[in-house]
Specification:
By secondary structure, the protein is α+β, with helices and mostly antiparallel strands. The chain has two domains: 21-252, no CATH class; 257-270 and 348-470, Gyrase A, domain 2, CATH 3.30.1360.230. Helix content is 25%, strand content 23%. It contains 14 helices and 19 strands. Strands 1, 2, 3, 4, 5, 6, 7, 8 and 9 form a nine-stranded mixed β-sheet that branches. Strands 10-14-15-17-16-12 form a six-stranded mixed β-sheet, sandwiched between helices. The chain has a four-stranded mixed β-sheet with strand order 11-13-19-18. A hairpin with a 2-residue loop joins strand 8 and strand 9 (182-192). Helix 4 packs across helix 5 (205-213). The chain is globular, with a radius of gyration of 25 Å. Residues 267-295, 309-340 are annotated as: Disordered.
Length: 471
């Protein structure tokens, strides 16, 4: 539970004896921006996290920012968190590692909310939103980076707003600070609509943020969130904005390296009764492995749960911290049983397949052109992770080193994980054949695509096929 109170003048100016140095460093950066607001309103965790409270952020300060009329920047409320970094340096929350690395998780969150006419005090709902994100970081130890997206699938203020997701970027005013416990940067939460989130997933977050900076009602240069915004950047400028996104995917590729999906794959190489035998065929004495970088990116994709349009990216956030023992190490991404199950393991044999049949529901099928055009043609990979069990399909290009699928044996399975290696020439051919999948409009199903010379078949089927356990 939180309470709202003003900070005392002595506390805000760091005059209290033994004032925590990490806290003081962040206050110092806030004072640099707001010298006239020494006593901002502050949401405070009544029971601190290290004492068993549910909220990891000790404080969230709320400032009134007058904007910058010369740059057409609107007046807004500016929220700053305290607690993702190490405030105390005594191991009560974060392991003290010295001044050279990151402090705690290395960042604090900020948020800029448009001030409504007549509003005399900042709304407090952003504080709970920031606490929710902080709980996710603490429980998963998955840190955020500029350009990341958060699928929330709910209005950020629990209203009827179209602003239901978030992108993250560097705060335009707050500079990184050096504390005795390490460095702290400031990541700003930017509220976005579903269409903008989808574009960020298909292209990249930084590209969409740059487009939003050029549209005043979508945030402008400082990316100020307006919860009453009714238009997306594509509504405001439909042709130009979509053209920029398409061009970005074409020239830079897509940052979407995988999705949770309704998908299955069948081995057409052998009759079903020989399946057990086919699983014992091994390529070489040891299975080839993806490079560490590619394996970690695939893991990252599956851990973050990059569902295209159906579920939140964050796992359930528990209201209470279940275990107050400090974890032994910090991770850059979230471990999960489902993602670990598809990572190569020496106890599972790798088998080559002569012919495969891939089956996707319509939502997953519409991403195939993006997978081919935005990922494989740029030398990258793309993974479909089934929402039912541990089945996964990874498309790799010849530019991905260390894959256990090769040009000689382009279809290879490692347990429930199928890898498909596609040459650039075949990708171009498939893009032409799959052109009708570029639209997300409903089409008549089933659809079947076949390349007999490659011994590859793809079917796009109704959702009911994947929801029926007998299929």
């Amino acid at each position: 539970m939180d309470e709202v109170r003003p900070t005392s003048g002595a506390q805000a100016h760091g005059l209290v004896p033994l004032f925590p140095p990490g806290l003081q460093a962040i206050y110092g950066e806030c004072r640099r921006l707001y010298p006239e607001q020494a006593n901002p309103l502050q949401v405070t965790a009544i029971v601190k996290y290290w004492l068993g409270g549910p909220d990891p952020l000790d404080y969230i300060s709320m400032y009134r920012n007058t904007g910058c009329p010369a740059q057409d920047i609107q007046e807004h409320w500016h929220y700053v968190s305290f607690g993702l970094s190490d405030l105390y340096g005594d191991n009560r929350v974060h392991e003290f590692t010295g001044p050279d690395g990151p402090s705690g998780f290395g960042f604090e969150l900020t948020f800029r909310l448009k001030r409504e006419v007549g509003e005399t005090a900042p709304p407090t709902w952003p504080a709970e939103l920031m606490q929710g994100l902080a709980r996710y970081v603490f429980q998963s130890e998955n840190t955020f980076c500029s350009g990341d997206h958060v699928s929330w699938h709910n209005p950020l203020d629990n209203s009827e707003s179209r602003i239901q997701h978030m992108l993250l970027t560097e705060d335009p005013q707050m500079q990184p600070v050096q504390t005795p416990f390490g460095t702290v940067s400031f990541l700003q939460i930017v509220g976005v609509c579903t269409e903008e989130l989808q574009a960020a997933q298909q292209w990249n977050g930084q590209g969409i943020l740059e487009l939003m900076r050029g549209v005043r009602v979508a945030g402008g240069p400082w990316l100020i969130t307006d919860m009453r915004r009714g238009e997306t950047i594509f509504d405001i400028d439909p042709h130009l904005q979509q053209e920029r996104v398409d061009q970005g995917i074409e020239t830079e590729g897509s940052n979407l390296s995988g999705v949770s999906a309704k998908c299955v794959w069948d081995d057409l190489s052998r009759p079903p009764e020989d399946e057990e035998d086919s699983r014992s065929i091994c390529i070489g004495s040891q299975p080839r492995r993806l490079s560490d970088k590619d394996t970690e990116q695939i893991r990252e994709t599956l851990r973050k749960g990059l569902e295209f349009n159906s579920k939140a990216a964050l796992p359930p956030i528990n209201g209470q911290k279940q275990n107050h023992e400090r974890p032994q190490s910090r991770k850059d991404s979230l471990e999960s049983e489902s993602s670990a199950a598809i990572v190569p393991h020496e106890l599972v044999r790798t088998r080559q397949l002569e012919s495969v049949h891939l089956k996707f529901n319509q939502e997953s099928g519409t991403l195939l052109p993006l997978c081919l055009r935005g990922r494989l043609l740029h030398g990258r990979h793309f993974t479909y992770k089934s929402i039912h069990g541990d089945t996964a399909i990874t498309f790799v290009s010849t530019g991905v080193e260390g894959a256990f699928a090769t040009e000689e044996h382009p279809y290879a399975a490692h347990g429930p994980w199928l890898q498909i290696l596609l040459t650039e020439e075949f990708v171009e051919q498939m893009l032409g054949d799959l052109q009708e999948l570029n639209t997300r409009e409903e089409t008549k199903l089933p659809k079947e695509y076949s390349w007999p010379e490659k011994k590859l078949k793809i079917s796009v089927l109704p959702d009911s096929v994947f929801d029926d356990p007998l299929q």
